[in-house]
Every structure is written in C-alpha cells, then in structure tokens.
Write a structure and sequence with these properties.
Layout: E1 2-5, H1 9-22, H2 41-48, E2 54-55, E3 61-64
Antiparallel strand pairs: 1-3, 2-3
C-alpha cells in the first residue's frame, strides 16, 4: 500500500489552499465535522480496506495497492 498526492499540481494547490481556509477540514464538504478533518474518516476507512485503490473524497490523496 502506498499513499501519494495527486499528480495534478493545480488541484493539489487548490485543495491545500482550501484546507488552510477551513482550518484543515475537507474543502469539498459544507459541514465542519470531526470526521471531515483531513485525512478524513472516509479515506482512513478506505486505506484500511485492502481491496480499495483510488482517490480520497477531495482527490488530494491516492491510495495504491
């Protein structure tokens, strides 16, 4: 398993700016809930799934098998 940043530098820049503006919460979500703090709970669960390969919700991180 390997977690990497999205190779799209512009997308990474935009998401990181959004994270700064939201205090570390996923900028793609309206609510500021603890489970949406980056790295979000949804992606943590996807990381734990040995069969999952793909991007997190905001496409900042990619998990490869």
């Amino acid at each position: 398993m390997n977690i990497t940043l999205n190779p799209d530098e512009e997308l990474v820049k935009a998401v990181k700016e959004g994270l700064l503006q939201t205090g570390g919460y996923c900028p793609c979500r309206r609510e500021r809930l603890p489970e949406y703090k980056c790295i979000c709970q949804e992606f943590k669960e996807q990381i734990a799934d040995p069969d999952f390969e793909g991007y997190c919700h905001c496409m900042l991180y990619y998990k490869s098998r």
